[in-house]
Amino acid sequence: MLRPGGRSARVQQSVHAAVHELEAEIGRSGLTVPLIASRAGVTPSTIYRRWGDLQDLLSDVAVERLRPETEPTDLGSLADDLGAWAEQFVEEMSSIVGRAYIRDALLGDPETNNASQCSVYAAVQINVMLARAAARGEDAPDVETVLDHVVAPMMYRILFRPSPLDAPYARSLVTDCLSR
């Protein structure tokens, strides 16, 4: 069991910081495990032992970057809350950086569950909004319905369609989901 704030957390933080710094300085194509290890002040074997390879490290970094920093804004109704959240989601995830993080998260070792962790992040955010709606007495779909009808179509387009996504598209998915 890892101790929060212990050596393991410090290693993760320094390695993640090294990835971000080096990516900004030399670009993603120049990243290597020895270069990251040197910047982070650890040995390459530490990185290989903890992450396995560069792709798994990049996947871990991506999942951490995709973690929401705050709860969704409470705007007074599920339609407004979910609409604003969907707009922000589509804006962040469809950006060049967002798309790169999604690809990295998906390319990691399936045993680490990095890709599924991204789904958990979205489900937690949606559950917060659904709980608020229930407390206000609003009818609301379940979390799986929102994931299937709002998040899934956005992710499909982000991953497989080159066309840009926008706020009206995100809002239309929310409207369709809530009218079911």
Relevant terms:
180 residues, Arc Repressor Mutant, subunit A, Tetracycline Repressor, domain 2, 2 domains, 72% helix, elongated
Overview of the molecule:
The chain is mainly α and 180 residues long. It has 2 domains: 7-51, Homeodomain-like (Arc Repressor Mutant, subunit A), CATH 1.10.10; 69-178, Tetracycline Repressor, domain 2. The chain contains 9 helices and no strands. The chain has helices spanning 7-26, 33-40, 44-51, 54-66, 78-93, 96-107, 114-135, 143-160, 167-178. Helix 2 (33-40) packs across helix 3 (44-51), helix 5 (78-93) crosses helix 9 (167-178) and helix 7 (114-135) packs across helix 8 (143-160). The protein starts with 6 loop residues before the first helix and ends with a helix. The model has no long low-confidence stretch (mean pLDDT 92).
Secondary-structure class: mainly alpha
Radius of gyration: 18 Å
Morphology call: elongated
In round numbers, the mean pLDDT is: 92
> What is the straight-line distance between the termini?
44 Å
- Total domain units: 2
**How much helix is in the residues?**
over 70%
